[in-house]
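The aim of this short unit is practical: by the end, you should be able to scan a pair of folded records and say something sensible about each. We start with the first protein, listed as its amino acid sequence and then its structure tokens.
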Amino acid sequence: MLIGWPKASEYKGDAERYRKNAVFFREAPVLVFALSGEYKSIVDSIILKRGENDPLAIEMIKNRQSAPTRIQQIGGFVAHLLLVLHSFGIGARWMAAPLVAKREIENIIQVHEGRDLVALIPLGYPDETPSASPRKTINEFVTFIK
């Protein structure tokens, strides 16, 4: 879909790689769909009561939208699911790329009103076991503040 857009031609190589990585899930024997419902925490309720015209409330709303609670909950679920599957020798990958066709996927899997497709996880036994790539030390990507 996206690859066929005229503006995509300037990204030809990257776009082709993206397309290949975005559609391989079609070959997976099992697909897990992570869905989320609307969620408003007590914190969200209090901030909204303060008012959308209040500068402090606006800033808090914006900050909370950058990492919404419902997405954090899905993230925890998917991360743990991937670890459990790996322990059983099952290959799995958390995918967001197919969400460019979110409406179509939701129609196919008949997502109910009030639910929202957030992630797609294809499962299967791997065809290969790639060697581990070199790992960075923790100090290369974490900053400890004392």
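Turning to the second protein, read its sequence before its tokens, just as you did above.
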Amino acid sequence: MQAGKFVASYFDAWNHSDPEAVANHLASDGIYIDMPENIRRTPDELIVTLTEFFGEFPHHYELLGEVLTSHNSIAFQYRVCPIANGGSGEFAAPYCGAEFMTLEGRAAVKITDYYDYPTPTEQNKYAKSGLRSEQMLDYKRQLEKLMIREQAYLRPDLTLPILANAIGCSVNHLSQVINSGFGVSFFDYLNSHRVAHARQLLTELDNQCRAILNVAFSAGFNSNSAFYAAFKKHVGMTPAQFRRKARNQGS
């Protein structure tokens, strides 16, 4: 694949907020290296991370200058501009970065991403939110009711704005409730409930022969790769390993 077409397709995936399309530019055993966070991600882990990122921080990505190539390597610079009125608004200003890719055939075996953006403290992030402590507790109770009693997490299309609308608060306030009240991101909060539901399904006798993909969909996930990555993150093993362990303990 020509370098220009590969990069154009890559940017198109980012601008359509499509985590699987972004990850598909990596080989199955490829690795995405986030230099500022010093984290390496597999394609499945990248899907999970980007699903969260796109849900909370919608942006537009644009190429700066030319795509540089050398043998099986590609390098380019980019600019990221936040989309107005989207997400929690953590990154208020545009920021720039650079990526270096090592290609093998039609996919990248390594993508190294360098960028620099402001990282406000939790106190500064919500300094002007106007959310009082009693409001936070009320929103927190409503959120737990929706998630535990009504199992809102089973909706595969559930997003932060949808949940905020159901509670009757702003997206920013609900983001603050989850980040400050539970100490996690919206995506981790959502997946913790979905994974807990999947664990229950995997241990029930009636579901012992049920396909793992069906369990994933029943728990609210809309892709097998996102389910596997989230399950392993929260449980420390794959769904198949968990089910085998549950069977052995029950026999």
